[in-house]
Amino acid sequence: MEHKDKRHNSTTESEKNIHTDFTNNMTYGEYLQLDQILSSQDRLSDHHDEMLFIVIHQVSELWMKLILHELNAAIESIEKDDLQTSFKQLARVSRIQSQIIQGWDVLSTLTPSEYMEFRDFLGQASGFQSFQYRKIEFALGYKTDHVLKIYQKDRELYADLEKAFKAPGLYDVAIKQLAKAGFTIHPDLLNRDYSTPYEEDQSVRDAWLTVYQNVDQYWDLYQLAEKLVDIEDSLQQWRFRHMKTVERIIGFKMGTGGSSGVNYLKKVLDQRFFPELWDLRTEL
Ligand code: HEM
Ligand SMILES: N[C@@H](CC(=O)c1ccccc1NC=O)C(=O)O
Hints:
Blueprint: H1 2-5, H2 28-31, H3 34-37, H4 50-79, H5 83-107, H6 112-119, H7 131-139, H8 145-149, H9 155-166, H10 170-180, H11 187-190, H12 202-213, H13 219-250, H14 262-268, H15 275-279
Helix pairs in contact: 4-5, 4-7, 4-10, 5-13, 7-9, 10-13, 13-14
């Protein structure tokens, strides 16, 4: 099929600029590659509810794909000082997050006994291995190298993930905007090694506090900060619903990925992305 060759492949999108031939008579199903998508729900058990389990994960991964697309675009916009464009992209990320959070309501119709009928078929597979989820964490600035090790055996995935690991995150480019607006930011932060976790900093806290206390003067930075808070808030809501849904379905059993299960997921809730933006609120 000729049109397929003309697609923008997601990995080469920025490198190639091939125009679609709009005169072709491609169908709805062809355009959306539904043959591929709709033939990718193979259940390992013959249990009815495994279909729900597969679909909810696939839908989540598709939304994550769009989140990454928007987050990376927003990081680029902020680097280019185009904050207005980044606001639109970040607002879209928040709306997508709302969709994924709603998904937990659907999954919680799965009861413990239904899940246990096919859980063993999953072996050691776990959401722990979600590649796109890690890329989102990296784009938001949460860098932990134990995550990279999971992919050591897969060269291509590893290289892709490593690139995201070493790149500046959303908070790094936001902090650069504070410096560009004239705030004194600790120089180590502006030239930091992006492959290390971000550590809370007094100069960043002081700068954001001034922004929040002088909204009229720093309207753009204030809007940017609130968009970041929206995204962290939603990510924490997602994590909380995941943890509670898991408790509802498997109680305190160990996870297939080898973790303690619910207690591990509770611990992850303590991890923060934009700490100063939360801390400063006590002082307002
Ligand atoms: C019955 C449904 C589910 C159960 C019982 C479950 C259980 C778990 C458990 C126990 C973990 C900890 C790692 C481990 O030891 O396996 C985990 C991690 C994870 N799960 Fe799920 N999960 C479910 C649904 C989902 C869904 C729908 C998603 C969406 C993609 C998802 C994404 C993840 C991610 C990204 C992690 C890694 C979290 C982190 O390390 O911070 N899970 N899950
Ligand atoms: N960690 C889950 C298994 C699980 O949920 C899972 C297995 C395969 C593919 C995706 C999964 N989802 C999220 O962790 C469990 O311990 O039951």
